[in-house]
Specification:
The complex is a heterodimer of chains A (about 675) and B (about 700). Chain A contains 16 helices and 22 strands. With about 675 residues, chain A is α+β, with helices and mostly antiparallel strands. In chain A, the strands form five sheets. Chain A has a seven-stranded antiparallel beta sheet with strand order 2-1-5-4-3-6-7, with helices on both faces. A five-stranded antiparallel beta sheet of chain A has the order 14-15-20-17-18. A four-stranded mixed beta sheet of chain A has the order 8-9-10-11, with helices on one face. In chain A, β12 and β13 form a beta hairpin. In chain A, α3 packs across α8 and α7 packs across α8. Chain A is globular and about 90 Å long. Chain A starts with a helix and ends in an 8-residue tail after the last helix. In chain B, the strands form nine sheets. In chain B, strands 13, 14, 15, 20, 23, 24, 32, 35 and 36 form a nine-stranded mixed beta sheet that branches. Chain B has about 700 residues and is of the alpha+beta class. Chain B is globular, with a radius of gyration of 26 Å. Chain B has 19 helices and 36 strands. In chain B, about 35% of the residues lie in helices and about 25% in strands. Classes of the chains: A alpha+beta (about 675), B alpha+beta (about 700). Chains A and B meet through α3, α7, α8, α12 and β14 of A and α4, α5, α6, α10 and α15 of B.
């Protein structure tokens, strides 16, 4: 019929979408108004006079539905990455792409589900269209992924022909291609050596998986079987959760549920505004260094951010940050999600981590072509495992200092977050099959200190409320490695009035295999983040090897070596980005990074220092040198010598005065 | 047949239920005595004996069976009153208990609000102090092969040092001991030689032969830490009972759903943790068998918490790990979820958002709800129940206590003012939120795990369960709520113990057999562990006829980690049984994760086999004589029904007004000795020959 096609033509003319090639180059930044094809109708009516009881009931119910989405991913996915470390997160979003709830798993996946959904609305609503029963998937860092191995599945939920909301999950894939096993590719020069970015693509149509698209995707991987199970898990997760949402809507009605979603976001905005208004205007700055932009590079590069608080608005800039280097960059999406990953635990901890209301007051004015705003084709795959966490630490630093400007909010500071050093491993396992994994002992990080208490030793990360690390037996079962030790590191908790959390390290050799290929991708050797709130930083992550040891003989002689220093050969430090093939007598030791402490160690309760010494968390040397605490007793029987401690602390204070100097500009 | 006598000790109350040979149940509640729990145990026997009009010796002399659920172990862990315990483990893994797998140590078992709050996050106190953890140079690998020989000399030195340290108990946990326990056995032998006889020893492969060193080591460490205190307690009770004239065996309730003779229970006290709620579930399962109900939601609302478990096809669902004090430990337990939502839960208003919230904080037993008049000023669910008209202020707990309406009024008024509501409206809001939270937990347990609550019958018990569950059931579209045993529902966990069989469980994990499975091989695996289970039951003097053996196999898709247990028939297995096993696994998988979620193209793996062996114990006869009685309401009162948003004339019944055979139409409340039952408008209720109140939600039968 001619009138229909006229209308269709008219629609085509009014609907443009975004300039996708510009998005693919500089990163998609959604405008205030989305350009959605008129054929797609968004559900809009919402109950805005909700009674508080119904509201609270549905708020909890939706949270639960989303959290349980995680259990489906965990159980249906085949990968130990999902099962033992919960390297995923589910998200529920409104029809137009605001985050309603994000799960308690890996935090930096969810805030940018918003970018994915909005981009799909703008660029897929006309062609191929968004219909009930559809699902899209995407891993494009320039649309809205942290890096290519983090794959998003997006499912629209329709009611009576209108788009009602979105269900999304993100799951880290062990391998979807690129030149390095594990798909974070430190040896790549740019995006062309990395897994190919997949912009949002319709992979399920009318509830049927598109086999051609699925095969195209699996064909990228070194281990298509493993990725295939993850694929099933992501589809199952979206389906099951979509059904649960329908149950809720069936029971309470579309308008009520929509009203609840709106109010959840409005409540989070309200909470943000209450807090931000207790803080004076100002600008907080931080500068840190990233090390090694790709394999073979050990240069350091400055990263600077400025956060300005003016009225209700927080504006983030990156003046002074180095230009994009190698493959350790993050896109606009990566930096944006880092902001939200800090805002939630520091300012919205009692709003179930709903950051979208607060995001209405956040501006990002970073310069393209820099380390924290990559321009295509700068590589991003190692950025997702290093730069994101690094940026989180940097933002936590400025945000913590901002909170310290408000007596009321100061108690909400958590000192900072260490940089990460990830490790992918591949080879032939002890059962004779090819294997590949990311070793998730990295999840044994630590939590920073607060103005009121110590950090948490081996407590995980600020960006992963629930992410566990695997057992030794889990890893030894699936991979050909033999752990020699896995332990808490003495003196790794950063000194302070309140000590930062201590971290762990582990040493291993290949076992019942000829060799293991390790891909290290970290940001280790340089000074980690710490400023203003703490006297001392936490020690950084560190990977070392002793090659050609007599470990086999020692094991035969009933001795399990407990350190890389236990051998006659000197250990070698790995550069942060390294690929290394390990033979059966090469002992590798990996240590996770640590956050800083809070306040002056000379103010720490001497009994707390004695307790730490008794538990091997602090050495007697550090107790004396750094905390100024004199101790008596042997082994775990440790007592504070009060007079000596007072003297020692006084001496250290005098020494500080003697060592102090006039800042440069006053000389 | 004589009396079946059951005592269940909780944190605040010790419940006792005695069943006579006609199935008549007599119940009593006394205060628990945390300083010396044995005191409360014998107090409760005195109380029930006087209720029966006999003395305690007479009661015990004519008891066929005394069974006991104890919270002594739980309490010791929660209160940090464990014994001086050492851990001997593989060199290099000494920090396993302190690392706690990272984030789980900071979050396990906590409500989401606390999980997300890094400002207050901590790990719990260690079960074993760092200086009492000893590493031994020895090593087994993932195939069970020895990589480092066990070092005898070093082990003996450690044992001698433990002797000097005067430890009360020692846990031994080596890597991969469930594949090869030679080293653990050697270590235990040396400890036995070097340490005093009364030092409590526990070995990981004996207690939990399972994959995953953290959860296995926490289990043995907890077992060791509470070993001395629990075994002393159980032995005291056992001796006390004998002194008072009981000549039978004391049975102790375990969290896995069975009971164990005292002599076995003292070796594995970690299995008594959380056994109270498990007993309630077994009671439900026993009753369900009589009522021919297959799928049940067991809903227990007490003073501080709301516990939910599921019974599927007549069997309670179990979980491979449990949590206490943020420690995950590998003890199979009847899977029960809990939230802080009981009669004593406090209602409050969030200052910043103005939201009305209920729990998880509780006023507990002391000071208790405002209406108890014991100094509590915070409004609780019980205060709201009182103001809405459900409870009888004068005749609360059968007249043993009177409630202070004015104090409840004051407490809720303060809250209502902040909310800009009337007092009744606020009270109704409290009840609605509490009910919604409980419905949420039930949804999480059912819908979110692939079960449809509409196909379930709900059993409602605990002091506050029978009052609140009919409204919760309505939200979930559950058609029938059973209040088991009427008034006895308030001591249902105590009753549940008497319906538990003796249970011995054995399993082998990490088998990694790939389909097609060889039926001969699988049969042999089952028979091996079955033999051990039968031996244990024989040692408990059960004859072959009194034994019931149940087999389970844990299957998974190849290349997957998540495993699902499916039942397997007894006897010699054939090819068809293998096919059935896979079919059952696939069906269950699709039920849980939706059609198409399975991955049969990657093949199937048999990962673990398990055998549960039950020894049949004397069971209560629950059925009573049905009378032809008509129930007559004693009065009509104006009770506020939140779903109707108004007060309705409501028939009020007391215990004496109702008997088996009677039926009641809602709106009605039935005020029993230790509990109150609500029958909402539109619902009907009949009392069956077991004394159960069967509430038909919406009036359908």
């Amino acid at each position: 019929m001619s009138s229909d096609s006229d209308e269709a033509d008219a629609a085509e003319q009014t609907h443009q979408g975004t300039d996708v090639w510009e998005d693919f180059r500089n990163g998609y930044v959604p405008g205030d108004e989305l350009d959605i094809h008129p054929d797609l109708s968004l559900h809009e009516e919402a109950e805005d006079e909700l009674d508080p009881v119904t509201y609270n009931v549905l708020r909890h119910r939706l949270y639960t539905v989303n959290e349980e989405h995680g259990h489906t991913l965990e159980n249906v996915s085949g990968s130990p990455v999902a099962y033992f470390a919960q390297d995923f997160n589910p998200t529920i979003l409104t029809a137009d792409g605001e985050v309603v709830f994000q799960g308690p798993y890996i935090q930096f996946f969810s805030p940018i589900a918003e970018l994915q959904v909005k981009w799909v609305l703008e660029n897929r609503s006309g062609n191929p269209g968004i219909e009930p029963g559809d699902m899209f998937f995407s891993n494009d860092p320039w649309v809205g992924s942290t890096h290519q191995p983090d794959v998003f599945f997006l499912a629209p939920v329709f009611r009576d022909g209108d788009l009602f909301c979105w269900v999304v999950n993100t799951l880290h894939q062990y391998d979807i291609g690129g030149i390095s096993a594990g798909s974070f590719c430190p040896s790549a020069d740019d995006v062309f050596g990395e897994p190919t970015p997949i912009p949002p693509t319709k992979v399920v149509e009318d509830d049927v998986v598109r086999e051609d698209i699925r095969q195209m995707y699996l064909r990228h991987s070194r281990l298509p079987n493993l990725v295939s199970l993850d694929f099933n898990a992501q589809v199952a997760g979206c389906r099951v959760t979509r059904d649960r949402i329908h149950d809720v809507v069936d029971e309470y009605g579309v308008e009520t549920v929509k009203g609840v979603m709106n109010q959840i976001i409005d409540d989070s905005e309200k909470r943000y505004l209450q807090r931000i208004r207790k803080i004076p205007d100002g600008t907080w700055r931080a500068r840190e260094y990233m090390e090694g932009s790709q394999t073979g590079d050990s240069e350091v590069y400055p990263v600077e951010i400025q956060m300005t608080k003016e009225g209700d608005t927080l504006t983030f800039r990156n003046e002074g940050t180095a230009e994009s280097q190698g493959v350790m960059n993050i896109s606009y999406a990566g930096f944006r999600t880092a902001i939200m990953s800090v805002l939630n635990p520091l300012m919205l901890y009692d709003e179930l981590f709903v950051a979208s209301g607060a995001f209405r007051h956040i501006e990002i004015e970073t310069t393209p072509g820099t380390l924290n705003r990559a321009e295509w084709p700068a590589g991003c795959s190692p950025g997702g495992t290093t730069n994101i966490e690094f940026s989180i630490g940097l933002i936590q630093d400025v945000m913590g200092r901002m909170l310290s400007a408000s007596p009321e909010l100061k108690g909400d500071i958590v000192s900072d977050t260490p940089s990460l050093s990830t490790m992918a491993q591949a080879g032939i396992d002890q059962w004779g099959n090819p294997f590949g994994t990311m070793n998730l002992d990295i999840m044994g990080g630590a939590i920073g200190a607060t103005p009121n208490k110590d950090g948490v030793d081996v407590g995980g990360y600020l960006w992963g409320p629930k992410g566990p690390m695997p057992n030794i037996e889990n890893n030894e079962q699936d991979y050909p490695i033999l752990y020699l030790y896995k332990e808490i590191v003495e003196d790794s908790g950063a000194p302070g009035q309140h000590r930062g959390g201590a971290t762990m390290q582990y040493g291993w050799v290949p076992h019942k295999t000829e060799q293991i290929h390790n891909v290290f991708c970290g940001n280790s050797g340089v000074t980690p983040i710490s400023a203003g709130l703490a006297s001392y930083p936490g020690p950084p992550s560190l990977n070392q090897v002793v090659e050609g040891t007599d470990v086999t003989e020692r094991l035969d002689n009933q001795e399990i070596p407990q350190s890389v220093d236990a051998f006659s050969e000197e250990p070698t430090l790995f550069a942060p980005k390294t690929e290394y093939t390990q033979g059966p007598t090469d002992v590798v030791q990996a240590r996770n990074g640590t956050p800083s402490g809070y306040g002056d160690p000379l103010k720490r309760d001497p009994d707390a220092v004695a307790d730490d010494v008794a538990k091997n968390l602090v050495s007697r040397q550090a107790a004396w040198d750094i905390y100024g605490v004199a101790l008596d007793g042997e082994g775990h029987m440790v007592e504070v010598l009060e007079d000596e401690t007072a003297h020692r602390r006084e001496d250290l204070r005098q020494q500080r005065l003697a060592d102090s100097f006039i800042p440069a500009e006053e000389q | 047949m004589g009396y079946l006598c059951n005592v269940d000790i909780g944190g605040t109350h010790t419940d006792v239920a005695v069943i006579d040979e006609d199935g008549n149940t007599t119940e009593a509640k006394v205060q628990s005595t945390p300083g010396d729990f044995a005191q409360g145990f014998f107090d409760s026997l005195d109380a029930i004996a006087s209720e029966l009009g006999i003395d305690t010796t007479e009661l015990l002399a004519s008891s066929d069976l005394v069974s006991h659920g104890t919270t002594v172990g739980t309490n010791a862990v929660i209160e940090g009153e464990e014994s001086e315990t050492a851990l001997v483990t593989t060199r290099g893994t000494e920090d396993t208990l302190f690392m706690m797998r990272g984030a789980p140590g900071r979050t396990s078992g906590l409500p989401i609000e606390e999980v997300l709050r890094y400002q207050t996050a901590t790990k719990p106190e260690p079960i074993v102090p760092k200086h009492l953890v000893y590493g031994i140079d020895e090593r087994i690998d993932s195939m069970g092969d020895v990589v480092v020989d066990f070092d005898d000399t070093q082990a003996r030195e450690v044992a001698q040092e433990l002797d000097r340290e005067n430890v009360e108990s020692v846990a031994v946990s080596f890597l991969w001991s469930f594949l090869n326990d030679d080293h653990e056995e050697s270590m235990i032998s040396i400890l036995e030689e070097e340490l005093d006889e009364d030092v409590f020893l526990t070995q990981s492969n004996q207690l939990v032969p399972k994959w995953g060193e953290y959860e296995r080591t926490t289990a043995v460490a907890i077992n060791a830490a509470i070993g001395p205190i629990t075994s002393e307690y159980i032995n005291n009770i056992d001796e006390g009972l004998t002194d008072k004239g009981y000549d039978g065996e004391l049975l102790v309730m375990l969290v896995g759903g069975g009971v164990a003779p005292a002599a076995d229970a003292v070796r594995e006290p970690v299995r008594t943790i959380d056994s109270g709620p498990a007993a309630g579930m077994i009671g439900c399962s026993y009753l369900a068998n009589h009522l021919e109900h297959e799928d049940i939601i067991a809903a227990d609302m007490g003073g501080t918490s709301f516990d939910v478990g599921l019974i599927i096809d007549g069997e309670p669902l179990t979980n491979a790990t449990n949590v206490i004090n943020q420690y995950d430990y590998a003890i199979r337990n009847i899977d029960i979820d809990s939230i802080g939502n009981g009669g004593g839960s406090i209602a409050w208003v969030d200052e910043d958002t103005g939201r009305l919230e209920v729990g998880p904080q509780s006023a507990g037993a002391d000071p208790g709800p405002a209406c108890y008049g014991q100094g509590g000023t915070d409004p609780t669910i019980t205060d709201a129940d009182l103001l809405l008209g459900y409870l009888d202020a004068e005749e609360f707990l059968g007249g043993r206590m009177s409630l202070k309406v004015e104090q409840a009024q004051n407490a809720i008024e303060e809250l209502a003012d902040v909310l800009g509501m009337g007092v009744t409206e606020a009270a109704s809001g409290i009840v609605e939120i509490a009910n919604a939270q409980m419905a949420d937990l039930v949804r999480r347990r059912t819908i979110n795990r692939g079960y449809d609550p509409r196909n379930f019958v709900m059993y409602a018990y605990g002091g506050a369960g029978p009052l609140h569950m009919p409204a919760v059931a309505d939200q979930l579209e559950i058609e029938t709520v059973v209040v088991p045993g009427g008034s006895a529902s308030s001591v249902w966990s105590a009753l549940g113990i008497s319906s538990s069989d003796v249970l011995h469980r054995n399993e082998v994990s990490n088998i990694r057999t790939v389909a097609p499975f060889d039926p001969e091989n699988v049969t042999r695996r089952f028979e091996e562990i079955e033999a051990e289970v039968r031996d244990k039951l024989q040692n408990n003097d059960f004859s072959e006829e009194e034994m019931r053996i149940q087999r389970f196999a844990d299957l998974r898709y190849g290349a997957q980690v998540h495993q699902i247990p499916v039942p397997v028939p007894n006897g010699t297995l054939d090819e068809d049984d293998m096919d059935d096993m896979i079919d059952r696994f696939e069906r269950k998988y699709e039920e849980l994760y939706g059609e198409g979620a399975g991955a049969h193209e990657s093949g199937f793996e048999l990962v673990a086999v398990r055998v549960d062996g039950y020894g049949h114990t004397t069971k209560p006869q629950l059925e009573q004589t049905e009378t032809d009685s008509e129930s007559t309401a004693s009065d009509t009162e104006a009770v506020f029904w939140p779903r109707e948003s108004r007060r309705l004339d409501t028939a009020v019944y007391y215990e004496d007004n109702v008997a088996p055979g009677a039926s009641i139409n809602g709106p009605a409340v039935v005020r029993m000795g230790n509990t109150t039952i609500s029958i909402p408008p539109n619902d009907t209720c009949d009392i069956d020959s077991y004394g159960n109140f069967n509430i038909h939600v919406g009036g359908n039968q």
